[in-house]
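Weekly structure sync, notes
Attendees: PL, DS, HV (note-taker this week)

Item 1: PAN2-PAN3 deadenylation complex catalytic subunit PAN2
DS walked through the input record. Source organism listed as Metarhizium acridum. Sequence as pasted into the shared doc:
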Amino acid sequence: MDGDWDEVARIPFPPPGVHAMPTPVTTMTFDTFQELLWTGNDYGRVTSFLGSELQRYTSFKAHLSTDGAVRQILVNDKGVIVLGSKDVHMAQRRGPPIWHIKYDYLTALYAELRCMSFTSKGTAEIIVAGLQDTMLVIDLNKGEAVKQIATEHQYSIMKRGKYICAATKNGTVNLLDPVSFAVVKSWNAHSALINDMDAQHDFIVTCGYSLRQGQTYMLDPFLNVFDIKKMSSMPPIPFPAGAAYVRMHPRMLTTSIVVSQSGQMHVVDLMNPNTSNVRQANVLTYLKFASPEEHAPQIEWTPETPLNSVGLPYYRDVLASAWPDLVSDVGAPPIRFDPQFLASLKPAEFGLYGRNTRGFRRNQAEDTRNSHKSANSGLKAPKFLSEKARESAKSDSRTDGKADDVSSPVGENEIESEKSDVPVMYRNVEIKYSKFGVDDFDFGFYNKTRYSGLEIHISNSYANSLLQIMHFTPLIRNLALQHAATACVSEICLLCELGFLFDMLQKADGSICQATNLLRTLSSHPQAGPLGLLEEDPHGSSLNVMLQGLTRFLLDKIVSDYKSMSPTSSAMEQALTTRRFLQPQQQALFDKPPGRNAKMPRVTFSQVLKSSVERETTSKGWCRLCSRYQTIATKKTIHNIPAVLMLNTAITKHDHRMLWSTPGWLPEEIGIIVEQGQFFCYEGEDLKLHLQRGIHNITVYSLIGMATNIEGGIEGGIEVAHAEQEAPGQSQWHLFNDFLVRSVSTDEALTFNTSWKVPSVVSFQIKEANNKIDSTWKDQLDTSILYHDLYPNPNSETKTYHILDPKTERPGPDTIIALDTEFVAIRQPEIEMNSDGERETIRPIVYALARTSVVRGQGENEGLPFIDDYISIQEPIVDYLTSYSGITREDLDPRISKHSLLPLKMVYKKLWVLLNLGCKFLGHGLKQDFRVINIHVPKSQVIDTIDLFFLKSRLRKLSLAFLAWYLLKEDIQMETHDSIEDSRTALKLYRKYLEFEDAGILETMLQDIYRAGRDVNFKPPRKDDLGVQRTDTPPLPVDASTPGPSTPVRKIIGMAPGSGFGGGSSWTPGKGSPLR
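Item 1 (cont.): predicted structure, written out as tokens:
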């Protein structure tokens, strides 16, 4: 066993007061974010110690001394959480309080708080329990108790693992679900009580007491182990000295450390208990007797005797003049002066003086609390689109939006990365939500380029920068799109989702996009959770570690997903086998620090890469000659290299940071030679020299981009010129800060900062693959999914659609299809009330696609659906939105649904195939449908009746139900919505639009529509006396000779009789029509 123990430091624990006796430590915990050890005592005081020398760092009171000892301490990235018997206190690591909750007014309900644990929301929420019948859930960001949960058990210890492991006062351990807090499993660990417990990964270890002769408590001479994966207890591990305390090793997954009350320590492997190491810690206590106290000398009292020579007596009671022992918010951050301002001041006898250039009046006090918040908040959020529309309608002069043209922190020529503080363009960006949702946010304010950014209000959006790098790597993009064009329908195929995302980013042409479907597939992948790649799973890893793990995972899945589907052409098979696209290779780890001797030669990127790839590793192995275990050195032999290099960095020391911050250290090109199992790497002049000689077969790689760690966030710097159809001839580096995209110089992109900007993932691609964008996948698009009913409805009587005929109905660029979707809510919005009483949306409502209906838009079967799919939703549904969607629980429950529930991937692929066939999507208010579907349809392929019947001067868009009532004399959506009915109605409205346009009365009709709408408040009158009931979509007629529901075709400008589904050549759109 490699684990060992050695004493590093020993200090006396500070007493609670100057003249008080030392007290024992009641609880302690190691800080997982800083090099600190946190301790608590019997008087409510928390003390931290820094480093291996245990220097005192901070000390503060968490609660009153009369409230007893500190029960437990937890830490997160924002501070430290302290639990007392009646208090929960959160403070910064420097000591200032963040919030404090006291439960004096609930003493009848909460007898005594004993323990707490993080929940499923990671380090943002805790659950608190104790010797009472109710548990509390506390939001750490708000400092409020958000939920009370009744419990039959009284808990004394809690530890967070895969479940919340809670020890009761009678020796039982309950495994609680971290979401619902229900008891999943109970384990009787000890007969009397549990003294200590720890949980990590798949194991729970406990030590406790049993009742022996005379009804006395004695420590059990063994360690109990419970296997969470198998949900069963393992054989106890003997510990004759009496197991008093136990901890799991933080890195060695199966190693446990057991300590007795006498200081005997065992480091034992739970899977092999016979290999324990035994150590003895010096825990002998001793008494130190004070020397006899000398009496104070007699004071000779005279009128000149100073009063401070008279000592004060010691009081046990609090004096009336004492400060109240309350947690108070005192002090404010100091004023931060600009270095240039300080440099301009001139010294004088009384201090420094100079011109007041700070923007404040003389002697004006500055509110540093609010100024620091605004200074660190990043870019100021722009006005909502609805506000801009109202302002532009009121103003006579049209501004064309130039006034809002990013008040540019982007137009400076200096290198922002060299600044000591994080520049504005690198700071975290946030989405603000109005009552109209995320669609009202002006993403264009942050992005004036033709490259699309990605939204951030989605789980696991930390992967945005990595996805952008892969999108601008032509080899990965071509591979993903070619695979997506095949007949693959696997629900967890990440390569297909990458292809869908890359196609969306290309078509968006600078508009905002979101990786919702890909990230949901990642969340549902069975291997992602155990690898610690999901933000929703509490694993304690930083985003930097998660991103590097995600890089390895995606490269592995790209290869396996591609191999799972037979290639559609021999060319792709040849390319895969000869070029070895993205074969899993050892990731290069930059772990070689530069030399400290100044005379040593300069360490280059190529040298570090070579040493990382070829570095030797040592391990224990069996030697046949010696017949024993020996240390074996292993060195890699390199035979070939992949076409794409994704390199994970390991910047762990200050020397590493200094190396990366050297100007020009990361080259834009490297050359690699692989000969006779050896790996050689060159850059700069050495690379040019080898290319001129032409002796060796050298492969040149171009730098594609870097995913950079910016103070806990991940951003991307990408050279987009390599992904253009034609090489632009100059570098085009761009910063991708989620949805903030801007052009930067090469020096800006390749400059790193030791304090706040370090690379996490670096990507290279072979130079000969630059600018080779393969578009042949569109010609090889597999359309079989449109002509096969892969999940036929077992009840044919309720079938509402008829699939396309492959002989007569071939969708193409002239094909019009009517689309409508229904969706349900899988997460309610998070709304908070500010100090002004205004409601502010913190996180918007999240929808999931529940039903998709696509109707033929032309031909003999116009109005007949060929897609009417209900989607199987994996996430818990919080609201079916039945009054708006027509979806009920019976529709989506696979046990009782009368519909065939399809995976989202299959439904999405049908729409994606129609999109890339060039079909024109018709509907009413399609923007929201496209957002929930997570697809981008170019404007040239969209016919939205909400825009066709719209007057910009009125600032109001008309509902489908009102237009149907006024123009078609039809009553729809009487009680609920039906997607087939809505798509057919939109199709009829489009025909009406063409009629008005051909007759030249469109403008007049729009004025009449708005005039009539104003009279009825733009709502169609309801016939309430008829008692309308909810109706399902009418099934298709059983008799094939009976035509399905259709809209009459105008022979003047519509389809000729007998024309097929894609026969757009037989009808002519009206003058000015968007189809012209």
